[in-house]
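hey so i finally got around to running the thing on that chain from the lab meeting. sorry it took forever, my laptop kept dying and i had to restart like 3 times. anyway pasting the input first so we r on the same page abt which one it is
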Amino acid sequence: MLATVTSKKQRKIHSRSNEMANKNLFAKRGANKANAYNEAGGVAYQLSPQAQLAQLAATGCLNHTYYTSAEDQLSKVLELTQDLPAEFIAKTALFARKQAHMKDMPALLLAVLAQKDVAMCAQVFGAVIDNGKMLRNFVQIMRSGAVGRKSLGTRPKKLVQNWLLNASEAQLLSASVGNTPSLADVVKMVHPKPDEAWRAAWFAWLIGREHSAADLPALTQEFERFKHNTGRLVPNVPFQLLTALDLNKASWRQIAEQGSWQMVRQNLNTFMRHGVLVAGKDGKEANMIASKLKDKETIAKARVLPYQIMTSLQAVNTGMPKVITDALETALEISLMNVPRLEGNVHVCMDVSGSMTSPVSGYREGATSVTTCLDIAALIAAAVVARNPHANVLPFDDMVRLNHRVSANNSVLKNAQILQKMLGGATDCAAPLRYISDKALPVDLVVFVSDNQSWVNNQAYYAGTTKMQEWEKIKARNPRARMVCIDIQPYTTVQAEPREDVLHVGGFSDAVFTLLNQYARGELGSEHWVGVINAVPLPN
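ok and heres what got predicted. didnt touch it at all, straight out
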């Protein structure tokens, strides 16, 4: 009997032998450990090389930001593109130009391709270099030596020549505005040899060489006549070519009438100063310009970024006719048509920390934008609320700030103005998630708008970021919850681990709303944003 009897002590020992030595040590973790540090010193997750390049391309303006320099951005792009396939670089350039509406970064990526794979560069050149400014950007980057040489090279030179030889007179006149380099500099560099008499005469006129005035194309001839007699009808040439001339009030009115949407928006105060924009019964021109500003087709054609309109509203002089400011507000609403309607419980987490006061396009002497990251975040949050009145807005720095009066009954502009005033201090991206978790709020979607520079309470490298720790708590109660992180600065680390339930997208164009919509509808694959870029078709 003794052989068949197992003592209580023996059973306890046997049971322990089948257990793991330390349940806490080997328990399954929700958030993976962090693998990087961000620019502010907090632990973070490194984006994949493809996602890093996408982030830089959609947000980087090659200017100094709050935490990094233009040189660092350039170095990072060159480092990434060294190992990435030429095709992905080309598709990223196309996305950045056509959907994110960036200028410097697409030109830089094209310059990289000119060194890495000139055939691929040639394939996408015409799609990326879609105007004269982009052409001059490309030439400047190539000649700077930033990508490895200080000359264009045979094939890139040919591409520039072809652009010059196929551009219309209007395109050439537009391209002639600007310096470093000027279009005249570019022509002298590449020596295009036109077959048309008008184009040969125009290039000679541009660089100040002898030419036949009779051979100049019609618009240029008209401009030359106008320079000698400003009492004539104003030629439809770029605004910048006219500003140095002595213009009368009638000329200023005509310039406003025939100007492009973007030009008119940028020069509202100038038109007002010259008597074009007046209120009351004498405000015929004001009504005409207002109609242009709020025209849906014109807005779409002009590649209008919502924040540009907000900036114009912030900058208009006192006394601007109400019909103009009303038109700008209407234009703002139109520009936000891509903001999706989101189902379920939506929380919008808007970063209002100190670093968000930096210009969204970075610092550059003589060219710093007045629009800050905080402005962009406020606009995005207000836009989501406008289309989703049920959305819960959670401004945060190192805590959630609930003392706002954002309401779906307000205009987008009014809500943005409310949120713009909520400036805080340190950054804790976990704060709004902690608030949601502590309150046990139901969650279907969380939308973050931030520069990702979280550092408060975010030093435990092995445990993952505090943002992800709090996200796992939310996921435990809301397993189907998803998070979209709109990252508006050119940093390559993030606070939320990229995975199926976390989408990262960079930028401040309406492209972010398109991707938000696709993700909310379950239309993005596992690669998320990188997959969208990979799907960009290359020109034939």
